[in-house]
Amino acid sequence: MTSPEKTQAPRWRKPPRLHEEIARDLAAAISQGQLQPGDFLPTELALAEKYEASRTAVREALTVLSTRGMIEAIHGRGSRVLPRHRWQLLDQLVRLVREDLEVDRSLFELRRILEIEAAGLAAERATTEQLRALREAIEQGWQCAEKPEDWTACDSAFHHLIAEASGNLLLPQVMESIAMLARAAALSTAREPGAIGKAMEYHEGILKRVAARDPAGARAAMRSHLLGVERRFLRSPEIQAAARRKGAGPRQEVSGSRKGRTER
Asked: Do the first three CATH levels of 18-86 and 89-245 match, i.e. the same topology?
């Protein structure tokens, strides 16, 4: 009996949904250890050439991996592989923010403490390049508006860019420590009709004040945005149900909110 002839590996062929296949191929490379935690993926251009794809398809694939917690985007450097314990962490955190009433309240309070001032500093210190990156983040956010999980990655990127534009060296690291938890909270309400569109309008308002070099206006815009997001979150049926299960009664309105300055 003769041994079967060796066949060459099939040439890459474009499938109907190319970005999903690119994401699957890269995920396999990460899972199999070809790319280690801390490694940076090839550039978008290099990946586009490898897979004979557009850079848009590559970006969509990277968004899929980011949503799974396998990589993180670092502005100006590319996409970095995350440790295995971070994979699928988002799903676990979504359950946490839905069930632990004190965690989500503390999260929103911490975000107000950090991000309102960050917006004001960004209005004073943002470079031309950082303003451009913020505009690109908003464009990507609108492109992902029909895909809640993908959109939360864009939302996280926008807020991280604000932290970087603040000029404070430590703030982006502090923000990174709560980024996944913030994404989980965002995902809890992102599927509600109009939620993403409203958040994107607020992002545009924040950028407008930052670009206008208006620190007070930027702080006010960020404060209004965060309070509105919190209000929407606390009013969501899932969070109200969690409150009843815990015997906490109806969730209270956001403290410190002002009429006309929050999302409805």
From this structure: no
Rounded (10°) angle between helices 89-99 and 171-190: 70
Return the bridge partners of 78, or none.
Answer: 74
Q: What is the DSSP letter of 40?
A: B
Class of domain 18-86: mainly alpha
For the domain spanning 89-245, the CATH number is 1.20.120.530
What span, in angstroms and rounded, lies between the C-alpha atoms of 111 and 185?
A: 12
Phi and psi torsions of 260, nearest 5°: 85, 0
Evaluate whether 18 touches 48 at the Cβ level (below 8 Å). Answer: no
Nearest to 147 by CA among 98, 181, 196, 188: 196
The DSSP element (H or E) to which 185 belongs, if any, is helix 171-190
- pTM summary value: 0.63
User: CB of 121 within 8 A of CB of 215?
Assistant: yes
Domain chopping of the chain, boundaries = 18-86, 89-245
249: left (phi over 0), alpha (psi -120 to 50) or beta: left
Question: Tens place of pLDDT for every residue, the chain, 264 residues?
Answer: 444 444 455 555 444 478 878 988 898 888 778 899 999 999 999 999 999 999 888 988 898 788 777 888 887 789 999 887 666 655 666 666 666 778 888 899 999 999 999 999 999 999 999 999 999 999 999 998 988 888 988 999 999 999 999 999 999 988 887 887 888 888 888 888 899 999 999 999 999 999 999 999 999 999 999 999 999 888 877 677 766 766 654 445 455 544 444 444
